[in-house]
Write a structure and sequence with these properties.
80 residues, 69% helix
Amino acid sequence: MRMYELEPLISNLHKKDRNSWEQARMIAYVIAQCNSTKKLKPTDIMQFTWDEESSTNDTSISNEDIKRLREKAKQYTTHN
């Protein structure tokens, strides 16, 4: 294996156990929510660094995007 092949592997190594941590958080969340009178969120139980990443992404769609996508869909349906 070459050095340039190792860089992506090493930089994403922390993502390997992400699913297991999410499962642990959900189990803890369900147990805590069953025993609580307050409304909880999974992030109230455990916070991870990838939670911050997902909250900073803007997923809103503008009117220009809607118009552009409608035109693209119209072109797709007329050509196929």
